Amino acid sequence: MTSTEILKVEHRAIEVILECLARAAKQAEQSGELDTVSAAQAIAFMTRFVEARHHSKEERVLFESLVAKGWPRNEAPIAVMLADHSEGRALTRKALIACDATERGVANCAADFACAAESYVNLLRGHIRREDLILFPRADHTLSADDQAELVAAFERSDAQQECVGACVLDLARELAERLGVSAAPLSAVRCHCRQG
Q1: 1-15 confidence digits (pLDDT tens)
Q2: What is the pTM of this model?
Q3: Which of 188, 189, 25, 48 lies closest to 121 in space, CA to CA?
Q4: In whole angstroms, what is the distance from residue 120 CA to residue 101 CA?
Q5: Residue 107: pLDDT above 90?
Q6: CA-CA distance, 31 to 62, in Å (whole number)?
Q7: Which of 119, 153, 171, 197 has its CA 20 to 30 A from that of 162?
């Protein structure tokens, strides 16, 4: 499996939770009440899996390798992907603030959560499409078989440095998907390289 194939497998897992997040946002928007358990689980997945694991591999491993191959860091497509990552982190923080405020009893925060969550879902769905259809095919054309092997090894090292984020967050994601009636099948394809201890 190549580095871009690994990232595509992770994209399918991310899409499961994007659907969960979209459903939680719609429910909050329609009812004016927030399911804080589901919201918190979705946010945990976005923070611990998407940002800490997936985007970290893209930013620190794949993109750096492509820059070393001559791709410009401050132009499309890398600059666009990095801007999306940054915007996603900001939207995750907004959703977390709204969720925390709701748990503390602050009124009318469900709408704030719904707005941030819907924006996040739309952003990431477009981002994933651009990576799958534009960035990754171009990267595959640039990278040799040896480059790909080095990137896969670097991905495994990156995953192993995280304290069981893979298995723990994927279990959380399965629970969330089951609760909200979303198929969790793509989560099973994600490999974990967790440190034990």
Answers
A1: 999 999 999 999 999
A2: 0.93
A3: 25
A4: 19
A5: no
A6: 42
A7: 119
List pLDDT tens digits, range 14-40. Answer: 999 999 999 999 999 999 999 999 999
Contact (Cβ atoms closer than 8 angstroms) between residue 112 and residue 33 = no
Taking the mean position of all CA atoms in its chain, how far away is CA 187? 12
Residue with tokens 């896969």: 152
Which three-class secondary structure state does DSSP give residue 77?
coil
- Integer Cα distance of 83 and 69 in angstroms: 21
| Whole-angstrom distance, CA of residue 3 vs CA of residue 140 | 9
E strand intervals along 21-103:
none
Domains and CATH numbers, the chain: 3-189 (1.20.120.520)
Query: At 106, which amino acid appears?
Result: V
Q: Is 12 left (phi over 0), alpha (psi -120 to 50) or beta?
A: alpha
d(CA 50, CA 69): 25
Cα separation of 197 and 188, whole Å?
23
| Amino acid occupying residue 163 | E
Alpha-carbon span 36 to 193, nearest angstrom:
30
50, two tokens = 């998407």
Burial of 173 (0-12, 13-18, 19+ CB in 10 A): buried
Confidence of residue 194 (pLDDT cuts 50, 70, 90): low
Q: What CA–CA distance (Å, rounded) separates 24 from 159? A: 28
